[in-house]
Amino acid sequence: MGVRSGIRHALWIAWKDLLDISRNRMGLVMLILMPLFMMGMVGYIFPSNSGMSNVPVALANLDAVQGNASLSTKFVAQLEALNNKTGMMDLSTVGSAADVKSNIQNGQQSAGIIIGSNFTSNLNSGKQADVTIVNDQSNPQTASLIQTQLTQVIEQMGTQTATYGLNQTYKTPLNYSLAQVAPYNIQTTGIVPGQTNYFEFVAPGIMGMVVMMSLMTGLPHAISFEREMGTLDGMLAAPVHRMSILGGKVIAQTTRGMIQGIIVLTLSIVLFGVVVQGSIALILGILLLGVFSLVGLGILITSFTSTEETATMIMMTLTFPMMFLSGVFFPISQMPQFMQVIAQFLPLTYAISALRKVVVLGVGIPAISTDIIILFGFGIVLLSAALLAFERAMKR
Amino acid sequence: MDDIAIKATNLVKKFRDFVAVDHLSFEVKTGEIFGFLGPNGAGKTTTIRMLCTLSGPTQGSATVAGFDIAHQGDRVREHIGLVSEKMIMYDRLTAHENLRLFGELYDIPRNALRERIDELLKVVNMEKWADQQIGTFSTGMKQRINVIRALLNEPEILFLDEPTLGLDPQSTNEIRDFTRRINEDAGTTIILTTHAMAEADVLCDRISIVDYGKIVALDTPSNLKKVITGADTNVIELDVPNITPTLISDIQSLSCTQTVTAEDETHIRVHASGDEACDNVIDTVRSGAGQIRSIHNVEPTLEDVFLYLTGHEVREQVADKVTTQEGHSRHGSRVRSRIR
User: How far off is chain A from B53, nearest CA to CA, in Å?
Assistant: First the structure.
């Protein structure tokens, strides 16, 4: 039994597994749906900043109910003029503060602006006039965004009004304008052209996660399932090296994982408008390296569990925290210190970081060489431990 | 080729504190059908697994086809075929693909493999099902493919672990015929484990009765039966429509009685020795107001041999079985499954 026949055996076993997977129709559908759901869910759950436009906002001018509402009317006109430029809000006028509340409650509007009842008279008598921003607390993400934006707008208008007031008082000539655009226009830009959305951040993460999780869950499942079915005995009783069996399983599961990874990549580009800045070949290469770094863990778990059920349970327990700690959804730098420390021990962290750099920043191998070396190291250490454990487990 | 296909010396397998196989030693001659007969959990499958190198012995050693199971695993595997209790088949692969996969694992050259597969499929009349997925087959059809899978490499030694378990009577007969044919035509040594006494009786050249990991007896079926007749033991079968627990224990308490089994609601099987055994049993039944519909002095079967050899604990079971009609008792249900 030379190396060549060992490889041949591994390929036949992989052929068998892949044939089996390809004939499992339900499984195939899930294989495609899983990454689609992942992308869709994650992409929409966390809205991105740049996407704020036409947010429905209720506007109640309580001052208008009173006699003199000249200043509040002007304020509304200013607000609308500004909004016409930015297109941020979709303003609709309502009658009372109660209306604002009920509209937000029944979901018609996401926020509200209430102009206080003594707006004009307060201003005229030199007091501060009240403008209240009403938030929808049930959606903290949008609420905080709207609040920030509205506060900015209204403060800007306040400054303008104050300036105008000063000009009036000191008779400085100034062309009166209904609304004034602030002199400083701040624009942010990334390293690469175009606007980055959350998908671009999350797509490499999901790709890495799907491929590696697919292997981590698939491998113990594939081996312990066969052990329970008794079919593993058939291979073990044949003159086939243990490593060929393992190799075959790894090849099959890696192929399955890579197919899922490619599906995620395609979906990200076609459906979610992700622009891949780096090379696709490099992305696939990193995915494979990521698989290599985790294969050992999968085999270790298989070796230490006797039933498929326990194997799956251990996998779930391990993969879930891994998913969140390795920076798939949130940048690791935003996490608390101790979590950052844990993240450093997860191979997935490095794979995702490398993928992200390639997809979003378009870097080449030199920029991710540290990640590559670490992934390689993880792979070698875990794999050596795993092969020892597997050899022993097969003798039970 | 050696005359001895398998030689086991003091094989022991422990799972933690449980001793599954307890110092087993035996020899299997080349070309014979050798049976392991015993209840579930007697250690038959564990023994087979060790001989097939699927599990390492805790102590002891064995050679299979002349190779040591501990150190020459690969050589052993080249010479054996295994039909285990669970089918070694992939449901989503066709019969042909399954056979092809295993043929490739045995490194059979492609053309030879194709011929061998066709030939074997023809032998079990499965040619026209070759390209159907195994999952759509009946258990009997699957088992036929499963058995020829184990024959792909033309093994010198074929292990059949409960090959007819869960099969309908027709498939059972087919598999038994086929087993005999493999043995006669190709001279393949066959190791058969079963808990069906009748199967062992009709198929095996020699049988080893195993219980609690030990060989209780090892001989040809006819010699095994002589254990009973030679000990001057009669096997009496009575048809008594109104069996009561008292009746059973009365028969049991006779000095000539060895074992009493209630086979069903109306039949009692008694092992008793001595010339007056029959008379004594009849007297006891009648004095206990039992009605005897018929009585036979029957030829002992392997079941009787098994009872006779492991009888001490079957005795408890008989009393249990009648008092708890449904077999709720721990002993009742366990022992019944151990014997039938």
Answer: 7
Is B149 part of the contact surface with chain A (CB cutoff 8 Å)?
Answer: yes
Question: What tokens does B238 get?
Answer: 């009575």
CATH classification (class only), B4-219: alpha beta
CA atoms A373, A378, A384, A386: torsion sign: negative
Looking at the domain B225-339, which fold is it?
A: Alpha-Beta Plaits (3.30.70)
ipTM surpasses 0.90: no
Domain total in chain A:
2
Which residues on A lie below 8 Å from B133 (Cβ)? Answer: 23
Quick one: three-class SS letters along B175-226? HHHHHHHHHHHHCCEEEEEECCHHHHHHHCCEEEEEECCEEEEEECHHHHHH
When pLDDT is cut at 50, 70 and 90, the band that residue B336 belongs to is very low
Pairwise CA distance, residues A111 & A104, whole Å:
6
Listed residues A169, A189, A207: the one ending a domain: A169
The CATH 3.40.50.300 portion of chain B extends over 4-219
Which chain A residues have a beta carbon less than 8 Å from that of B85? Answer: 230
Same domain, A241 and A321: yes
- Chain A contact for B71, CB < 8 A? no
pLDDT tens digits, one per residue of A320-335: 888 888 888 778 888 8
Domain hosting A146: range is 51-169
DSSP state of A137: T
User: A237–B106: do the CB atoms touch at under 8 Å?
Assistant: no
A1 Cα to chain B: minimum distance (Å): 9
Tell me which chain B residues have a C-beta less than 8 angstroms from the C-beta of A238.
Answer: 77, 102, 105-106, 153
Which parts of chain A sit beneath pLDDT 70? 1, 43-53, 65-67, 141, 171-197, 395-396
Q: Residue A257 domain-assigned?
A: yes
Sheet with B267-273, edge to edge strand ranges:
B257-262, B267-273, B233-239, B294-298
Question: Same domain for A89 and A34?
Answer: no
